[in-house]
Amino acid sequence: MKQLKDLNIENKKVIIRCDFNVPMKEGKIVDDTRIVAALETINYCLEKNAKVILLSHLGRVKEEADLAKNDLSPVAKRLSELLKKDVLFCEKTRGPELESLVDSMEGGDVILVQNTRYEDLDGKKESSNDEELGAYWASLGEVFINDAFGTIHRAHASNCGIASHLPSAPGFLIERELNALKELDNPEHPFVVILGGAKVSDKIGVIENLVKKADKILIGGGMAFTFLKAQGKEIGKSLLDEENIEFCKNILQEYPKKIVLPIDVAVTNEYTNDEDYREKDINEIASNEMGLDIGTRTKELFEEILNTAKIVVWNGPLGVYEFEKYKKNTDELLKYIVENNIKTILGGGDIVAAATKAGYKEKVYHASTGGGATLEYLEGKTLPGIESLK
After folding, report:
1. CA-to-CA distance for 350 and 389, rounded, in angstroms?
2. Which of 21, 50, 131, 275 shows its CA 20 to 30 Å from the CA of 345?
3. Tens digit of pLDDT for each residue in 333-354?
4. What is the mean predicted confidence (pLDDT) over 163-182?
5. pLDDT at 381
6. What CATH number matches the domain at 185-378, 2.40.128.10, 3.40.50.1260, 2.160.20.10, 2.40.30.10?
7. What does DSSP assign to residue 377?
8. What would the mean pLDDT of 265-279 be, rounded to a whole number?
9. Residues marked as catalytic
């Protein structure tokens, strides 16, 4: 696979697939992290006097009502501020207006094209990797750079479709992501995995793939209670992924020394942040209680295991992070990792959001920008967006 610096992009029309799928509220950008992450690749192309054509999706477009709320024009405005130059915005995803704008470009110009998923309104052309649409977008440029790590696990017209027609390479963001994740292919030992989040079903592939090479898998979050139920524990009203109790039983039997479950939890009677905070041993959960976080003794057990780790990958918070009382142990474990300089890869999504909120994102070894993409990589799956660049 060629790298960006291997391609001749001098004075050429370069299409860059970015991930500008940023959180928006009432037409305003709430968090511009993903826009900032794309700047290195964009600026490199501008230094080569390239004519830069940017593509991205935003949200999901299933009906006409989705168009206005997923309009990319606020991103063009923010990009103009960050690049300190005008970024032209094309309201259309194809047609004479877009073609005219591209034809009139000069070196150093930047155009952002409207949300690629506007094309999903008519037969899901973007999301189904419509051949004609991919060829059309490719016809606008001479070189293709994919820098949207968050969508490399999807075969879309704006990544795989374009890549099949033009000289292609990953951008610097994808390069960094892959270089970090490749360290998990043949990891240093002890190698520790931390898994949180709600459902076991979301992590089955990750567990099956990583349990073979990890020294320990520390389980927290809502998914821990399905494992505890599989051990015959009373879990009260805690979250239960009933369909996967059998999977949990089997994995615990096969790898009893690798799977580490909570020994105490923070419980409440209602799914709320308002009740008094209390911790209980996992053998003492009452039938009317639910667990919303790991307990202090579990956090200390996890720290003891992490203390000797050479590399750690962490996906999913260990408690209900949106509740102030039940984000405590996730934050404290993040703090422990940072203060003890433990080489940790945060696997995108909610755990990166938690680390950002707590001020630790920039202090860990690597915080991935793609939750779904990272999970599929950890499952050992082929990523279409990467394969198409080869």
Report:
1. 28
2. 21
3. 999 999 999 999 998 778 988 9
4. 94
5. 86
6. 3.40.50.1260
7. H
8. 92
9. 34, 199, 349, 372
Measure the CA–CA gap between 142 and 152, rounded to whole angstroms.
Answer: 21
What global pTM score does this model have?
A: 0.87
Distance CA 116, CA 71 (A): 10
pLDDT at 26 over 90: no
Rounded Cα distance, 339 and 331, in Å: 12
Tokens read off for 292: 């919303």
Of the CA atoms within 13 Å of residue 2, those in its CB half-sphere come to 15
Residue 11 to residues 14, 52, 90, 263, 348: CA-CA distances in angstroms? 9, 10, 21, 61, 35
- Alpha-carbon distance of 236 to 290, in angstroms, equals 6
Q: 201 pLDDT band (50/70/90 cuts)?
A: confident
User: Of the candidates 144, 147, 117, 149, which has an alpha carbon nearest to the alpha carbon of residue 133?
Assistant: 117
Neighbour count for residue 239 (Cβ, 10 Å): 19
Map out the domains of the chain as residue ranges.
4-171, 185-378
- Distance (Å, rounded) from C-alpha 34 to C-alpha 359? 17
Instruction: Please tell me the predicted confidence (pLDDT) of residue 154.
Output: 92
- Residue 314 backbone class (left: φ over 0; alpha: ψ -120 to 50; beta: rest): beta
Give 89's strand partners.
112
SS3 percent helix, strand, coil of the chain, rounded to 5, is 40, 15, 45
Distance CA 7, CA 65 (A): 41
CATH architecture, domain 4-171: 3-Layer(aba) Sandwich (3.40)
Query: To 5 degrees, how large is the angle CA 96–CA 98–CA 99?
Result: 60
pLDDT of 371 higher than 80: no
CB 236 within 8 A of CB 283: no
* CATH topology match: 4-171 vs 185-378: yes
pLDDT of residue 350: 86
Range 197-207 burial, b when 16+ CB lie within 10 A, else e: bbbbebbbebb
Per the structure block, which two tokens stand in for 196? 């949180």
Share of the chain above pLDDT 70, in %: 100
- Residue 292 above 90 pLDDT? yes
The pLDDT-based confidence of 83 (bands split at 50, 70, 90) is: very high
Question: Please, is 305 exposed, middle or buried when counting C-beta atoms within 10 Å of its C-beta (0-12, 13-18, 19+)?
Answer: middle
